[in-house]
Each structure stands twice: as C-alpha cells, then as structure tokens.
Amino acid sequence: MFVCIYGRGVSRTRNSAVATGENSLLVDLAFTFSPLVEQTTIDTVVLDASGQELLFGGTSEFSESAEVESAVNLANEIFSRSKYLLLKTNVAVASNPDTAIHAARSFRGISLIPPGEELSPLGSLSIKKLDCSLVAIDEKRAEELQETFALWGIRTFADLARLPLAGVAERLGQDGVRLQKLAQGQTHRNLNLVRPPVGFEQSLELEHPISELEPLSFILSRLLNQLCANLNEYALATNEVRLSLGLEPVRTPLACNQQHAGGVRTKCAHELGINLPVPMRHPKTLLRLLVFEIEREPPQAPIVSVTIDAVPVKPRAAQTGLFIPLAPEPERLEITLARLVKLVGSDNVGSPEILDTHRPDAFRMKRFTLNHRGHGGRNPKAGINRQSAIGNRQCVMGFRIFRPPWNADVQTVRGRPARINARNPKISSKVRGEIVCAAGPWRASGDWWRSDVWARDEWDVAVLDSTSNENEILCRIYRDLTSEQWFVEGVYD
Amino acid sequence: MNSAVTKQEIESALVDRFGHVFERYERLPAETLSTGSEEIDDALQGFPRGAITEIHGTASSGRTSLILSALSAASSQDEICAVVDCDDTFDLSSAANAGVDFDRLLWIRCDHNLERAFKAVDLILHSGGFGFVALNLCDVPAMTLRRIVSSWWFRFRRAIENTPTAMIVLTPLAAVRSCASLALELNNKGAVWPSTLSLVSDNGYSRFTGGSETGSHLYLVTPPAQSRAVNPAHSQFLRSTSICINRTRPVQWQLPAVNFRPHLR
Questions:
Q1: CA quadruple B72, B77, B83, B88: dihedral, nearest 10
Q2: Is the pLDDT of residue A343 over 90?
Q3: Checking phi first, is residue B64 left (phi over 0); if not, alpha (psi -120 to 50) or beta?
Q4: Long-range contacts of range A17-26, CB-CB < 8 Å, 24 or more positions apart?
Q5: Distance from CA of B43 to the nearest CA of A (A)
Q6: So what CATH class is A198-252+265-370?
Q7: Closest chain B CA to residue A482
C-alpha cells in the first residue's frame, strides 16, 4: 500500500523560498514514517507503507486487510502530524502510487481507495486532473491528448476507462493505452526514491584541549577510518580533504581574531587542506599526509574540536598489464613527495618545466604526477621502433649549470679571454687557469622592455686546470653587458 | 692405508646424504637499463638493475652526457626517473636537447646539502617504483666524499636489491667502492673546436646600452698555436668531445676502453 501526502498550501512556483521550506517539511514528514519516499512534484510526496503492520497494524486476521488497516492508521498519524506542523495536507491511501496521488490531489482530508475499487472514487474526477507526467507523457503530447478527449466528449476518468482498449490503441497509440490504465487506477510502478544528500564529514568536540601532535593523530585516525568506511560504502573515493581545527580562544594580541582585541575572543579555526592527484580512500595514507601538513603549518593554539570533510569523487580505475613499466604506487608516492617537501622545501621538488622565453635557465617546478599513457602506456610496435631509435640516437653533450653563476675574474687579450679565475665559496670548487681555446663571442639579449633586461656575450672556453696541467675543463663563460662583469655559467661534462 | 682423500671423494660421499649442495648454480644474468648509446650498450650491456652503478671522472669528462643519454632512453621507455641533484647543477636545456621527458622525471634540488641528498635518495629508493635514480655528486669536494660512511651505500644497495631500479651515482672520484656493481671511469680525450667567425671591434666591446661600434672589422678567431687536438668545424661553438670509458668494476682485462662522442646539438 502507498500513502500520498499532498501539500495544499505548497505553491508549485520553485522560486518561492516558502514553498521550498514547506516542500522540505513534506519530505521530512514522509521520511519520519518510511525510508522509501518519492517526491513526485514539489507539493506531492508518496511513501511506501508496506511493512508497517507492527507499528500501525490493526486487529484484522487477514493479511490484506491488516495491510490496509495499518496503511489507514499510518495515514491518520501523518495527517495528525501535519496538523501539528501547521501544514495543510490531504492524505490518500491506495494500492498503487498513481491512484494515491490522484486521490490526494482531489479529495480533502484522508481518503482510502480500497484495492480493486480504484475506479469508483476516481471515476467522477475531471479528465483534466489526469496527470500525464506519471506515465512519462510530455506536456505537448498531453495537451494534444486532452484536446482529443475534449473532441470525443470524454469528461471524466470513468469515460476514458470505459473506452475499448483496441480502439484507444488504434487511435491514440501506446500513450492512450497508458492514460487509460492511469484513469482506471491500474498502473503499478516502483517509487522513484529520494536519496538524502550524502555528506562525508566527521567531527569531534574534545573534552580537553590538546596541543601535541601525537594525541591529535589518534583522533584524526579515528575520524579518517570512519570517513573512509563511509566512502567505501558508497564506492567512492576522495581527492580533496579539508581539515578544520577549532582552537581555544587565546587572550593575546597575536591571536587570529584581531577585531576583538581586548575583549572576549571568538573561537578561531585553523584550516588545512590536501589535494590529491588521484582519488584515494586509504585512511593511513590520508593520515600521514594530514600530519605532514599540520607539521608544516602548526596551529597557534590548543585544539578543542576537529572536523574533517572529504570531497567525494569516483575512484580511479587503473588497469594494469604485464608489459607496463614499473611505476610507484600513487599512495606511497604521495607520502614520499610529502616527505621530500618537508626535507628540501616545496620549491625544490617536482617536475621541471622550461618556460617559453629566451632568458637562460628559465624554468618552473610543477607538481610531479604520474600520467599514465592509455592502454598500459605503449603500442607494442612503437616499442620496437623506440628500441631501434635508442640505439641510433646521437649522444648529446651534457652541461652542468651553476646556480647562481660564479663570479669570475677574466683577463682578456685583444678581446679574447686568456685567463680565468673563478671560485664558488659554497662548495669550494674553482675554475682557474689559462684559457687554451676559446670560441665566441655569441651575443644574446632579451626582455629589453622590462626592468630586468639581460644581455651578454657568451664564450665556450677550454681552461687548463692550474692544479693539473693535463686536465682541460670545458666551460661556458659570459660577460654581462649591463654590469660588465664576467661569470662562469657552467661546465660541459 | 692411504690417508690422502681427495675432495672429490668427500663430495661424492656427502652428496648421497646432503643432496645437491655441491652443485654450482648459474647466476641469472641481471637485467639492464640501456645507456642510450649503442656502442656503450654493446660493450657494457647497459646499467644493471637492482644495483648501484658509479660513474666517476674529472670535470668535463662526459659524466653528465652519459647520464643524460641514459635518462633519455629510460624516460622514452616510460620509466619513472628521479634525479637527486646535490648542488643544483642539472641543466634543463641540455636535458631537453637529449630528449629527456620531464613528465617522467622527478627532480630534487638539495642546495649543496649532502645529508639532504642522501636522505632524499633513501626516501625514493624505499618508496619503490622508480626505474632510474641518479644521484649527482659531481661538485662535492673530494674530502667530503671520502668521509661518506659506507653504511649509506650498503643501505642503498640493500634497498634496490631484487628490484628493477637502477641507481647511478656521479662522483668526481671513486667513492661507492665495493657497493657498486659497475664502476666506470670517464676521461676526456679532446674537444672538437670550430672555426669561429666573430665581430670584434678595434676598441674592444662597446657597451650594450651605449653607442654603436665604429670601425669594426671582421676577424677570424682561431685557437692559439699551443692548443692540441683541434679539428676545426664550421660552426660557432664547441661541437663535441671525445670520451673514453674504462670499466673499473667488475674488472675484466679483456674489455677495452669504450669511446663515445657526445655532440652539442
């Protein structure tokens, strides 16, 4: 049995905030009595009353009668509750959802449509009250059918129900057949259930403030375990986790809320977040990443509450294969990258990207991610060509660049560098000696329209190492034309 | 009674009781990673996986050229590569010219901190999944290198044993010692210098911001007479060098030195 609740006062205008509020009240009201709820329209909800005999069951010995009796008792309870909530509603009980909907919309108060007697109460209803959307007929087609009914002189549900089936099918097609069944109250369908929005958030208020990482990590572990279990239930993962730590109010000038200086401070929050390159739901990995993040940006006051919020996404689908080269596991890679960032700094870890400029050594570091090149990475035929390409490739001379370039003292003879003395105090390396061979200069410049204009004359030189006369160091030096200073840019190696 | 019992007799007596303990098992050939150069691969069979390879030599001996070649080959085969750069000397232009795929490269810059470099390598090796890991110690002073405790190298070797990871260490002198399965010594045999056409004014260089050069002449800039091994080519800069590779570990007397010539472009 099905129970339909029709909100008489709810407007169908979706812009109305009041309508929205009442609509949510209708849905909440229905959820109070059954988890199986359909929101047919903004003012109509239908719930499945099956299985409520123990709560609302009657005294009848027959199962069918007991079911009807319990549905009626349920409807009475719903009506009373709606009065308590100051909602004007009609409640109808029927053996199928569509009959209950028509009855609730047409009859005030509580109505019961006994199973098998649907046409009796519905037959007198105007044909214009027939809701074609319940049988998946669009508005335009519904208007055409209503016009046809008007031409035929069909005024009520009963008129349509009494028409011969073959004639309806022949003249109106399957749409007409479905409408006739709807008018007869003989449609049976499943409810299009309302799913409450799923939120993946876990929070905890602490009895005592904590200011150390270890007890905090235990709390985070507990919350993350629950969060990941929820994600697992819905077959989802997350690629963004936000952590909000409620801090104890602190009466110092250095507290975060400067607007309340000298007065009672409101509770501050320390917000952190991690963005993952691939969706994950492994609690230990997420815990480690959060701990690294907290160590990087520790809160400034003891913590009184913890809230973790995860953005749900579909989990990644990675198909492995026998011939795919080795690659790090995404979870372990993320932890390793976090540890490397903690060790050397975020600017010193990542994949390099050369910038589109002529300025020497212009690059930026971007986040290192694993990009799988579809179908396991390779075409087998391309692999063969690649192997032969490796064998045929010409080795390119390597260059080791000094960052920053070394200051050099260069003696020139007739415009050519003849002797050089350069030293890097940081690493106690030096390039010193006679320049036995030089090629250049090569003039390069750029960004003349900017304040950081650069211009230089470059030379490739061979320096006879003063400490070892047999060792030649091939390096690139340049003379900065703006400062007239010589530098050693790097060494060919 | 003849008390001299041969080894063979002892083994034959024990084999019935202890089975095949005296059999020698052939060690399976180790998998290797291509160096990117066919001639080097033919001679050395590439860099061994699951082991440490040490490449040492003085400045301009070709270490970086060899490592870029191997990086290019590895990244082109979709291997995930990592370069731990102790002194931040990794040049992106030459790496791009060599064909290194930066999307497959993790670069860690350690700001002249040797301890950080070793810890970074340790993290990467224990993370697993990297096919090629290079540790660049080219500019570390020799005295500092000699003070590196062997336990680090043992730890690295243990971490990559039985894994497909190939670890290459670049040093100015041999430092890894017995922990390296393959050690290569590189020497520069000579550079190829071009004949250079250069515009040089009589009064030296004019300032970039100031006036124009007057009375400029064309000079053919040639290397001085005392230079050696000059083979002029028609280009503007250093064109190539000739590198000699000697395998110092494992020692194999029949194996001659391998020569290869990296080019600038």
A1: 30
A2: yes
A3: alpha
A4: A19/A43, A22/A87, A25/A85, A25/A87, A26/A87, A26/A89
A5: 13
A6: alpha beta
A7: B208
Asked if the Cβ–Cβ distance from A390 to B36 is below 8 Å, we say: yes
Give me the domains of chain B, ranges plus CATH numbers.
32-190+240-260 (3.40.50.300), 194-237 (no CATH)
Find which of B238, B239, B259, B265 to mutate to test the A interface (most A CBs within 10 Å of its CB).
Answer: B238
**Helix (H) / strand (E) containing A21:** helix A17-33
In the beta sheet, which residues pair with residue A463?
A435, A473
Is the preceding peptide bond at A121 cis, omega within 30 degrees of 0? no
Chain B residue whose CA is closest to A413? B204
Q: What is the residue-averaged pLDDT of chain A?
A: 83
B94 vs A363, A398, A474: nearest CB: A398
A320 contacts on B by Cβ (under 8 Å)? none
Tens digit of pLDDT at every position of chain B (265 positions): 455 667 777 777 777 777 666 555 555 556 888 888 887 888 778 899 999 999 999 888 889 999 999 999 999 888 999 999 999 999 999 999 889 999 999 999 999 999 999 999 999 999 988 999 999 999 898 888 888 989 999 999 999 988 899 999 999 988 888 888 888 888 877 776 655 434 333 333 333 222 233 333 222 333 333 333 333 332 345 666 666 676 766 655 555 666 666 766 5
Facing A350 at nearest CB: one of B60, B107, B263: B107
Q: Which residue has the higher pLDDT, B221 or A403?
A: A403
Q: Does B196 touch chain A (CB under 8 A)?
A: yes
The reply to whether B185 touches chain A by the CB within 8 Å rule is: no
Contact A326/B119, CB-based, under 8 Å?
no
Asked if A327's CB is within 8 angstroms of B221's CB, the reply is: no
Q: Over 50: is that where the pLDDT of A33 sits? A: yes
Record: contact B106-A389, CB cut-off 8 A: no
**Predicted confidence (pLDDT) at residue A35 exceeds the cutoff of 90:** no
Nearest residue of A to residue B99, measured between CA atoms: A396
Kind plus residue range of the DSSP H or E element containing A167: helix A165-184
Distance, CA of B60 to CA of A488 (rounded, Å): 14
CB pairs under 8 A between A and B: 249
CATH 3.30.1490.100 domain locations along chain A: 198-252+265-370
CATH architecture for segment(s) A2-184: 2-Layer Sandwich (3.30)
Q: List the single best residue of B40, B56, B78 to mutate versus A (max A Cβ within 10 A).
A: B78
Cβ separation B111–A348 shorter than 8 A: yes
From A317's Cα to the closest Cα of chain B, the distance in A is 19
- Measured distance CA(B49)–CA(B32) in Å, rounded: 5
Please give the pLDDT value at position B221.
34
The pTM for the full model equals 0.65
Phi, psi of A183 (to 5 degrees): -65, -35
Q: Where does chain A hold its CATH 3.30.70.270 domain(s)?
A: 2-184
**Contact indicator for B106, B135 with CB cutoff of 8 Å:** no
